[in-house]
Design a protein that fits this description.
- With 106 residues, the chain is an alpha+beta fold.
- The chain has one domain (16-97).
- It is built from 3 helices and 4 strands.
- A hairpin with a 6-residue loop joins strand 2 and strand 3 (65-70).
- It starts with a helix and ends in a 9-residue tail after the last helix.
- The structure holds zinc ion (ZN).
- Zinc ion is lined by residues 70, 72-73, 75, 94, 98, 100.
- Residues 1-22 have a biased composition (Polar residues).
- Residues 1-30 are annotated as: Disordered.
């Protein structure tokens, strides 16, 4: 079974991870400045909804920056906002393959 086939379903169904646990996002606010989030591979497997690659946009769309940062491993990249589609591709590809575990909270 592929990752994609595990998370498909109708809008009325909650997505489930490999163990069948619901991975429906809780109604908690995103970190300040985050405009887009991708759940990582390990986030899906473990149900850890904080294991994400986050996109933060700063400045105006024609003259600002977009930054993608993987919360579990810290890998990141930054582009001019005019090149945001490339950043989104990087973020999504990283999220699909990242196997880093998020550091447990103290
Ligand atoms: Zn990562």
């Amino acid at each position: 079974m592929t990752t994609q086939s595990r998370i498909t379903g109708t809008a009325s169904q909650a997505a489930r991870n490999a163990t069948g646990k619901s991975i429906t996002a809780p109604h908690t606010p995103w970190p300040e400045g985050v405009t887009t989030r991708f759940l990582t591979y390990m986030g899906e497997l473990t149900g850890d909804l904080n294991a994400t690659v986050d996109i933060v946009d700063t400045g105006i769309p024609t003259d600002g920056f977009s930054t993608a940062i993987c919360r579990p491993c810290g890998d990141s990249t930054e582009h001019l906002r005019t090149h945001r589609p490339s950043l989104l591709s990087w973020a999504q590809e990283h999220a699909v393959t990242c196997r880093a575990l998020a550091q447990p909270a103290a």
